Amino acid sequence: MGEAVHKVVILGSGPAGLTAAIYAARANLAPLVVEGGDVSSKTDLPGGQLMLTTEVENFPGFPEGIMGPELMERFRKQAERFGAQFVPGRAVSANVRERPFTLELHDTMQDTRTTLRCHALIVATGASAKYLGIEPERRLLGHGVTTCATCDGAFFRGKQVVVVGGGDSAMEEANFLTRYASKVYVVHRREGFRASKIMLERAQNNPKVEFKLNRTVKDIVGGERYLDAVVLEGTGPDAGKEERLEIGPAGGLFVAIGHSPNGEIFAGQLDMHDTGYLKTLDGTSRTSVEGVFAGGDIHDSHYRQAITASGAGCKAAIDAERWLEAQGL
Ligand code: NAP
Asked: What pLDDT sits at residue 42?
């Protein structure tokens, strides 16, 4: 292959990828950022999960708050200012068994495929929240429907909200939301829980939390930019029962049914936890393959905040820069 070998390619344009791009660009590494996502999608845009939120109030430096998409636009401009280049599309396959590494990209808009080679690779492909898969959910994302209580809870002060899920995330979100909401319903599809006992008990003992078990959310009732009720459908022993749960005016639906890390193309090549999150070594961004670094939600199932992803992207760029230098590249 005759094409140029990039010093650093960064996969992903969320807070981790773009912070890595700022640092790598300022270090004169001319990073190439593969944007990821799909510009024609509503729930998987380049720029990551912040593209799906409205106002971000907890990112330091913005005392008045900032809209998620605008924050990502600013990250991007800052990376471009120092010479980072961007390519649309996502990596659909990777070979990190041999150096230089090879990536195959697919641009969904043009439906074209290209191959890239690089000496160092920063994986910042993030994680995607799982969705219920009902139609109004997508339309109301950021307008009543959300997947992040830490990000959006404060918008539901004095309101009623529904949290869907029976894992630790759902319990944590339910408890957290009681700080703002007047009432929190937890809708879970069975009677058993995946959540740890302590987190479950905390929710069960919270007087503002009411459980709706053996139920799934079948439909959402509301307008173009708000929701007032959800329709619950019985499962298991309650199969066939239907119930309309009023949470208006302008209540919230928090979908907390888990996240999936976007690391499939590295399966069998980079060490991962059983959950698919990448393993990194000794508090660094180094993965199990030398020259491949990870930052953000792709390796962090715990904190999942823009600011922690950003910090991890910074670490990945610094680690990559030092590794390239040590290699004489
Ligand atoms: P999770 O443990 O996989 O739980 C997902 C929950 O959503 C399950 O109860 C599942 O129901 C339900 N669910 C999945 N798909 C659904 C669907 N289509 N419709 C309705 N319900 C659906 O995910 P998580 O709660 O995000 O936790 C992920 C990991 O992070 C866990 O290891 C957890 O311990 C950890 N975590 C820890 C903390 C903490 O310690 N502070 C906080 C958050 C998360 P079923 O049970 O019926 O499958």
From this structure: 62
Q: Please name the CATH architecture into which domain 131-255 falls.
A: 3-Layer(bba) Sandwich (3.50)
Residue nearest to atom 1 of ligand 1 (CA): 167
The token pair that represents 161 in the structure block: 């909200």
**Which pLDDT belongs to residue 43?**
65
So what's the pLDDT on residue 1?
45
Architecture of domain 5-128+259-326: 3-Layer(bba) Sandwich (3.50)
Same fold, 5-128+259-326 and 131-255: yes
How are beta strands 127-129 and 101-107 bridged, if at all? unpaired
Residue nearest ligand 1's atom 14 by CA:
257
- Distance, CA of 143 to CA of 146 (rounded, Å): 8
Q: Where are the domains of the chain?
A: 5-128+259-326, 131-255
Cα 160 to Cα 178: distance, rounded to the nearest angstrom: 10
Closest CA to 288 of 20, 42, 97, 46: 97
| Residue ranges in the chain whose pLDDT is less than 70 | 1-2, 41-43
| Long-range CB pairs of 242-245, under 8 A, 24+ apart, other chains included | 242/218, 243/212, 243/215, 245/162, 245/185, 245/187, 245/212
Q: Give the pLDDT confidence score for residue 193 in this predicted structure.
A: 98
What is the Å distance from ligand 1's center to 78 Cα?
A: 36
Long-range contacts of 223-226 (CB under 8 A, 24+ apart): 224/139, 224/143, 225/140, 225/143, 225/144, 226/140, 226/143, 226/144, 226/250
**Which of 164, 185, 194 for mutating ligand 1's site (highest number of atoms within 8 Å of CB)?**
194
Predicted confidence at residue 53, as pLDDT, reads 73
